[in-house]
Structures are given as structure tokens and as C-alpha cells.
Amino acid sequence: MKEKLQAIIMAAGRSSRFKTNRSKLTEKICGQEMILFATKTLEKLKIPTSVIVGYQKEIIQEVITKQHGKKITFIEQLEQRGTAHALMCSQPVWQQEHILIMNADMPLVSTTLLTNLWEKHLQTNAACSFVSAHNLDPALDSYGKIIIENNIVKIIEAKDYLELVKQDPSKKNDSCCINAGIYIFKKSFLEQAIPQLKTSSVTGEFYITDLIHIASSSGAGVEIVDAPVDQIRGINTLRELWIAEQIKQADIINHWMHNGVRFQAAQNNYVELNVVIGAGSFIGQGVQLTGNSDLDEDCYIEPYAIIDNSTLGKKAIVKSFSVIKDSTIKAGSSIGPIDTRIKSNKPDQSQL
Q: Which tops the pLDDT comparison, 159 or 289?
């Protein structure tokens, strides 16, 4: 399926709206750096991937290399002049017939969505295929607006649209279709269309979205795949990071519920991606399960315990307010309240 496709991840931005002076892409969501959601999804699909880096490139490259080794290549965008400029920087590594482009700050994108986009792109022989969603939430105002007039598809970026309406209120468009930031282009089309791009009069940037209008107006063929808005959420602010983590956290807990784990108050639990919980286990309210913790079957974790990077044997019991870190609790043991991070003269209970 993927032998004709390669991926480019856009990861060069400055994350200015986070106001933290560090790249948002290294912030963790349920225990995993944001950038790794995109790279791992593409790895599952066996799509060769390159990442465009810029701001704090060394840190981002270190995170990716630690996870993927040398499987992923990097391209540097020395000057941030827009999404299409970043794409231009990647042109020397274009080797396949089709190029998948996606933003790095989309941790909820599924393999199913990318597969559906690829299949439709091939079936229709489109020059360009991209993902859209229907949005009725005015708080999600940073997405480009998709407008179709006289069968011509175009995307107006959020800043440009706001300026357009400000200058001429009659230009306001009620379309609720937004651009997700995931595209597949024929390489041959990109090579022909990129020289036609012009900078935005509002931001002075080159936009990938202008390629959609070029393809549509020239009759080259544009296809759109719809997705739930929650699945294509990008993250530009700490509030949006919090929302995405709540969605991912709900997915994780729902998974373990379906596999026989009872949560006393699921909305008050925190469970990271790499945690494993055996069937028949009970997780009290306020419990935090982090790192590579592995709970065997029928464990009983009382409220407000913290278990980090630890292994619990079958039918182990952890009392309320215990903190278990880098420890092994034997099957059938009952432990706590205890903090295995604190050294004392008492017998070591971390191997109970």
C-alpha cells in the first residue's frame, strides 16, 4: 500500500502561543511527547518519514531519534516563511510518487484516517487530497476555512479570513468546514504548482493551502475526506493541550474498561500510554498510573495511590496514599501506606 508514498511532518514552528519559551512538540500527553504521536502513527503504517525542524531543532531531533533511531530523516527550515516554504525546503528528499504532509501537533490522528485518505487519493487519481472536519465551536478559530464556489475548492487561512471580513463584512462565510492540515499530493503536481505560489498579503507567508486552489481551478482534481473534529485537533495553546490530553485519557481508560478493569471514578484517574493493567483489577479514585507500570490481574489499588514504573503481581493490594516507584510488588502482597522513594532504616518493602 505505502510503497509509492512518503511523509513529511511539519515541526519547525516556534510555538509562540504556548508562551513557555520551549517547543510545544516536546510537551507530554499521557506520558508521551507530542511529536511522537505523529511519528509512531506513520511508523505503524510503514510510511518513510522526514521531519522539517527549525525552532529548538536539537531537542526535537533528540526525542525522535531516541524513539526511532535513524529511521527518520530531518530537514531544517532556517527561516520560518510559512507552511509552503517549509514544504519547499523538503523538496530534495522527495523520492516517491505521492507526498503525505501533516502538522506535527496533531496527536489524535488515527491510522484509519490516514489509510482512508490514501485509498481515496489513489482511487480518484487526484492531484491533491486533504482532510476536513465540520466545526461549530467558535473557540476553534485557528483553522483554515474551506470554501467551495462554482465547484472550485479553496482554503482561506484563519488570519487572512479575519482580515478579509474586517475589511469587508459582506465577505463573511458561514461554512463550518475547516482544514485539518493533512494532505496527500502527487509529486508531479507539487513540482509544477509550487513555483506559482505567492505570499499572503496579510502575513507575508507562503501557504500550502494555496496549492488546493491551484489544483481545483486547473481541473487537476481535489478530493476531501471528512473526519471528526476531535480526531484532527491541532494544539496551539496550553488550553488546547489540556483538551487533547483529556480526549486521549478517555480513550486509554475506555480501552482498559473494555478489558475488564474497573475504575471507581474514571474522571479522576490518570493513566499513561505505556501502563498495562490486568483484567479484574480495581483502580480507586485519584490513582495515578505512570511510566511503564505493569499491573497483573486482580490487583486492588485504593484511592490516591501513585504507581510509577513499577510491577505489581497478581492480586497485589496497594493502600491509599502509597507512592510506589521503580519497585516490584510480589503477587498477593498488601502494601502501604508507603513511599518507596524515601530511604529509611526500615526493612525494604519494595520487593514485597
A: 289
